[in-house]
Amino acid sequence: MYRVIQCATGSIGRSTLRRIIDHPDLELVGLFVYGNKAGLDAGQIAKRPSTGVIATSKMDEILSLEADVVIHTSRITIPYAKQNAEVEQFLASGKNVISVNGFFYPEVHGEAYAGPLRAACERGGSTLAGVGLNPGFIAERIALVMSGLCAQVDYLGSFEMVDGSYIDAPDFVFGTMGFGTDPSVTDITKGPLAQLYFDLYIETFAYAAEAMGTSIASIKPDHRLTLAPEDMKIAAGTIRQGTVAATEWRWNAEFADGRRMTHSLLWTASPRLHGDDDPVHWRIEIKGRPNVHLSFSLEDPDPGAPPSRAGADATAAAVIRAIPDVCAAKPGFFRFAPLAPFRERF
């Protein structure tokens, strides 16, 4: 039985909270929240029977609990490293941490970033792991596994499309996603938001490069904006004509061995803006010998479910499955080893 603390109860956090409560091998021992949910029973927040675990916004109460792991699903914010102080407290108190907000390859940011996290692990005898869909699963696990079908790899590409029209979170949609921004006033492709995404996804490039036995030589941004052709009403509010209705965060990297990689995340208010009436969530493209093309989507078994629920459930599943592996790992940084990816040299 693993004792678990859930940190934050946004859409992903509520999904992981349900999986924790429902799982026969997990015991929920604490719930850390932001805002006005403090004082509520975890079961009430997760739409489950009462658990006896009462949500708190007091960090000292959470740190005093005996727990094996903290599931960290707080909303990522600018700057990227802002979340680290909270994570370091969990680690230093002796709790392993599984986060959906990066931490897949902390070393790529340099010792000034990775050092305090590593020191917190050493103080607490704890382990830090990044686990999620993108980043964490699509390029790092699926694309690299597919590369093992190739005798030669010249190019690796992973592409995600997220329909943001159903996301009822104005701060996230008009903030972190960048919708509604007037490009004549603010160029979000060169500001703090672009830096946030770069800091998050450079870890994906470092992870893939290491798996294929090489390293990053250069990364260049190739971000693209799509403007609303008319006023667009979405769940989070109205996107005014001429403002940002889709943001594609794209980077092209060259590795030290000459191989190339593209990673792209497209947030859109409507797939039709991109000429796509039946979009897939993810595409993976590998150029080499042979070429490999893979596309796939996630679907909820309930046709009436919110479109975002399948992705939230999948993220929760990946996080929950990682608990025994992370808890068994030695203190420090944890990442799943890719299963037999392409390598030119053994």
Write a concise keyword list for the protein shown above:
346 residues, alpha/beta, Dihydrodipicolinate Reductase, domain 2, 2 domains, 6-stranded parallel β-sheet, 26% strand
Please tell me about this protein's structure.
This protein is 29% helix and 26% strand. With 346 residues, the protein is an alpha/beta fold. The chain folds into 2 domains: 2-130 and 314-334, NAD(P)-binding Rossmann-like Domain (Rossmann fold); 138-297, 2-Layer Sandwich (Dihydrodipicolinate Reductase, domain 2), CATH 3.30.360. Strands 6, 7, 8, 11, 12, 13 and 14 form a 7-stranded mixed β-sheet that branches. The chain has a 6-stranded parallel β-sheet with strand order 2-1-3-4-5-15, with helices on both faces. Strands 9-10 form a two-stranded antiparallel sheet. Helix 1 (11-22) packs across helix 9 (309-328) and helix 4 (84-92) packs parallel to helix 5 (111-124).
Give a concise summary.
It is built from nine helices and 15 strands.
Give the topology:
Elements: E1 2-7, H1 11-22, E2 26-32, H2 42-46, H3 59-63, E3 69-72, H4 84-92, E4 96-99, H5 111-124, E5 127-130, H6 138-147, E6 152-163, H7 170-176, H8 192-211, E7 216-221, E8 224-227, E9 232-234, E10 237-239, E11 244-255, E12 260-268, E13 282-289, E14 292-296, H9 309-328, E15 332-334
Parallel strand pairs: 1-2, 1-3, 3-4, 4-5, 5-15, 6-12
Antiparallel strand pairs: 6-13, 7-11, 8-11, 9-10, 11-12, 13-14
Helix pairs in contact: 1-9, 4-5
